[in-house]
Each structure stands twice: as structure tokens, then as C-alpha cells.
Amino acid sequence: MIFNKDTAEKTAELLLQINAIKLNPGNPFTWASGWKSPIYCDNRLILSFPAIRNYVRDEFSKNIEKQFGKPDVIAGVATGAIGIGMLVAESLGLPFVYVRPEPKKHGRQNQVEGFLQKGQNVVIIEDLISTGNSSLLAVEGLKAAGANIKGMAAIFTYGFDVADQNFKKANIDLYTLSNYQNLLNLAVAKKYITEEEEQTLREWNVSPSTWGI
């Protein structure tokens, strides 16, 4: 679920402007999972553009408080959401921790890095939601450390049905600044893509694991 439509449209436009999201239906990307994809998203680029990272920080900050109430701690999912998560925590005047999808294999074998007390209310920041599996592993790590999870806020989601099902099953509220639907609407309106390319992108979204095979 998006926080609101205006933010979703503005965020989508900014991500396209800086090539954090690339749309290339004619020459698909290959994800690490092996999936063929006409879209590639790298939200870490946001950190290199001060005005845009400040916009994302401010939208997260005001909408997190509105939707979840002010938490005790902000947690960023490693590694993509550490930077923006720190900015949100600073904006809200809150402690920050970051969490890995699984514990380290060496040293203290921590999954959660930073100071977290049992029972503290935590909102998790994520940069991108695909299936939701790695994000929810981070949720479980925080729960194991004693956190009370208020919800998760992400920059962008591909809007896969499997992700919706995974978050519903885990009973975790997910809100995003933007999503795939708003991205495609904006991309067509601003002529980043043709209507034919839009159709290809929508077909991929319905069955991403088998598309292009």
C-alpha cells in the first residue's frame, strides 16, 4: 500500500530522472535470481542526489509518524536501506540500528547491529520490495532480538502478488513511497515508455518468474 498518491507519483518521477529505475522491455535485465526483467531498480543512487534523498527522508519521516506513530527505534535493512534509514532516524531524532537478512558468519554473529532493547517499538526501512522474502527475514531477526515491529516502510515495490501474500502471512503492515502501478502510469504520461512497452511491463509483472523464458 502506498502512503499517498501524490508522493507515489513524485517518487516515481524522481527515480526515473536519476536512473534509479531503468525500463528496458526490448533488452531485459537478468536478476541475481535468474529472472528476466524489463525493469531494474537501484535505489542506492538516491543517496548521491542531496535534494532527492532529502525528499525521500522527509516523506518517510512525516508518513511514518502519521501511519505508525513515532517509534522508539528506526531499523534499516542491510545494505540498501542503511543510508536512508539513518537519515530518517536523524530526522525523527531516534536511535538507529540495522539488520541483516541472516546473522553474520563470524565474530559475534550479530544479525542486528546497534543498541536495541527488548520491547522497543521499531519501524523498519527498506529500499526495495520484490518477493519480500529477504525483508521478512530481517523482520524475524528483529523479533528475535525482542523488538515490537510496528511496520515496514519501503521506497518502492514491484507489487508482486507473492509479496502481498508473504507480508499478509507474516502480519506485517507494509507501506511504500511508490509502487509499480504508479511508476507505469507516470512513465507512459511522461513518455519514458510507449503504450506497447507498458503492456510488456504489465505482462512481466503478472508472472515475473516465467516471463521471457
UniProtKB/TrEMBL annotation:
Catalytic activity: orotidine 5'-phosphate + diphosphate = orotate + 5-phospho-alpha-D-ribose 1-diphosphate
EC id: 2.4.2.10
Record's keyword annotation contains Glycosyltransferase: yes
Chain's gene name: pyrE
Matching Pfam families: Pribosyltran
GO biological process, one term: pyrimidine nucleobase biosynthetic process
Chain positions recorded as 5-phospho-alpha-D-ribose 1-diphosphate binding sites: R100, K104, H106, E126, D127, L128, I129, S130, T131, G132, N133, S134
Protein name, UniProt field: Orotate phosphoribosyltransferase
Signal peptide extent: none
Residue ranges annotated for the Phosphoribosyltransferase domain, each copy included: 58-156
Record flagged with keyword GTP-binding: no
Cofactor dependency: Mg(2+)
Molecular function, one GO term: orotate phosphoribosyltransferase activity
Binding site for orotate: S130
NCBIfam families in the cross-refs: pyrE
Family (UniProt): Belongs to the purine/pyrimidine phosphoribosyltransferase family. PyrE subfamily.
Pathway in which this enzyme or protein is active: Pyrimidine metabolism; UMP biosynthesis via de novo pathway; UMP from orotate: step 1/2
Subunit structure of this chain's protein: Homodimer.
Organism field: Flavobacterium laiguense
Highest taxon in the source lineage: Bacteria
Keyword tags: Glycosyltransferase, Magnesium, Pyrimidine biosynthesis, Transferase
Task of the protein: Catalyzes the transfer of a ribosyl phosphate group from 5-phosphoribose 1-diphosphate to orotate, leading to the formation of orotidine monophosphate (OMP).
